[in-house]
Amino acid sequence: MDFDRRSFLKASSSAIVGGMALSGTAAAGHLSVSDPAITTTDLNIREQPSTSASVKATADQWTGGHIVDGPTSADGYTWWKVSFNQDSDNGRITGWVAEGDAWLDGPTDFSYPCWGFITQTSAEDGGAIDIGNDYGTPPVAARDGTAYTGYGDRCGYYVSIDHGGGWTSIYCHMQERYVSDGQTVSEGQQIGEMGSTGNSTGPHVHFAIRYNGANQDIPGFDGQDLIAGSGIPKSYL
Question: Which domains does the chain have, with CATH numbers?
Fold first, then answer.
């Protein structure tokens, strides 16, 4: 995966012990429940919010996640419960991580729009990705914006969200759309149902992030198991 890491804080001054950074400053306090987030270093995922709690897994650097609980303070750290996407070593997993010195960072510029598996990567698909799942799986807005709908021979029924500043996101092949033209939508809001309309051989969402009409690369690997609302590990804005 080719990540743009320019805007991410590196934990270079932290001591990494057992896969988790164990020194750093107090949490910045910019995260909240439901935020899309990413790891900026390999980060231990624990059963409970404590450095003495058992480790369930270690998330790779630049793994996307969705914050589901927290914050809570323990052992000198601020802890968040996060559901993480599959990485190179682990399937989807939920547990507690220390925010530390932005070891868990967010909210990210954009989030992945639905549960499912990447069936085609941006490298294979001109910057966009395909996320497959069952008919009716609910795609959500990847960022706040203004929604528009349409139909194309290739894209089928789609939703386009204008995020301002030349940025848009596209969601293709939908069987149902729950938004109308000009409607304001919030990140994480359901915008329809996954389908297979247009040029499609099965239920999936063709997801693109565009800047001034040009597709931007979206990180991910074939077969990666994604969580709706999880952070995309790339700086776009």
Answer: 16-105 (2.30.30), 116-226 (2.70.70.10)
Q: What is the pLDDT of residues 111-130, one digit of tens each?
A: 999 999 999 999 988 999 99
Q: What are the residue ranges of helices labelled H in the chain?
A: none
Strand ranges (DSSP E) for 18-133? 20-21, 36-39, 43-46, 55-59, 64-74, 77-84, 93-98, 104-105, 116-120, 129-132
Cβ contacts of residue 232 below 8 Å, gap of 6+? 36, 38, 64, 108, 109, 110, 111, 112, 142, 209, 218, 219
Lowest mean pLDDT among 13-27, 39-53, 192-206: 13-27
pTM of the model: 0.87
In angstroms, rounded to a whole number, what is the distance separating the alpha carbons of residues 5 and 153?
36
Q: Which amino acid is at 69?
A: D
